[in-house]
Amino acid sequence: MEQKTKHYEKLFLVLVFLFFYLPIIYVVFFSFNSSKSLSTFTGFSLQWYEKMFKNRTIMESIWYTVSCAVIATVVSTVVGTITAIGLSKSKKALREAINQVNNLPMLNPDIVTAIGFMLLFTSLRIKTGFTTMVLAHIAFCIPYVVLSIMPKLRTLDPNLAEAALDLGCTPLQALWKVIIPQIRPGIVSGALIAFSMSFDDFVISLFTTGPGINNISIYVYANVKRVNPTINALSAIIVYVITIVLVLVNVVPMIRERKSKKNEQLIR
How many of the other CB atoms lie within 10 Å of CB of 119? Predict the structure, then answer.
């Protein structure tokens, strides 16, 4: 009975993985198709990648997407880290109240947040465009960064900063040399979440951008009803980049840990 249960669990796990990853494999596979068909593979070709790089509209959408994601990630990571450290030193009542407010953008549907930003920019008579889209992305990325860093701060010894100050560090040195290295994994994970949230956002971007400023998600939405295999090539490149980034983020720390362990063993 137990063996049958284990087999069913494995089968269920395989089905879940297929459900999530089969569409991605399908898109990547047909990005190399020599014809426009999305159901029949007629031969290997790189023509859709070539056409994608020659398409000015696609290149502009990639530029806006990456620029917005990088700016939003950097600003939200810095602001979110400072906010999380400040909250960890605040009184419990204030910390709980701000945490509840911090959770609102994540609990709200994207459409509500998008309409809120649109009405805000309209009421302030701010012309929508790239700047308003970046500001909106920064605003909804900060809560994710704070949420990623707070658990690391809870496990941090509260006496570390005081010990650093007693040993002659300035408050800034204690922050930079003592606290931040201890919570670096939380900062990195928060930055990755912020980048991915900004990179693939559609609803908020659609409501806060202006004419002529389109990111990848808006471009794909505008062309999804047409038979356009360049979208497959664009999607495939995004998959390649994300896979490389994830591998680097996960593999590089493992290599460093192994090297440090080997050095420790050699010293001993």
Answer: 11
- Answer yes or no: are the C-beta atoms of 140 and 208 closer than 8 Å: no
Tell me the whole-structure pTM to 2 decimals: 0.81
From residue 124, give the alpha-carbon distance in Å to each of 22, 111, 207: 45, 20, 15
Q: How confident is the model at residue 4 (pLDDT cuts 50, 70, 90)?
A: low
Indicate the class that CATH gives domain 57-230: mainly alpha
**Res. 109: pLDDT tops 80:** yes
73 pLDDT tier (thresholds 50, 70, 90): very high
What residues does each domain of the chain span? 57-230
Helical H runs in the chain?
A: 2-30, 47-54, 56-88, 92-107, 110-123, 130-154, 159-166, 171-174, 180-182, 184-199, 203-208, 216-223, 230-267
Per-residue DSSP letter, 179: I
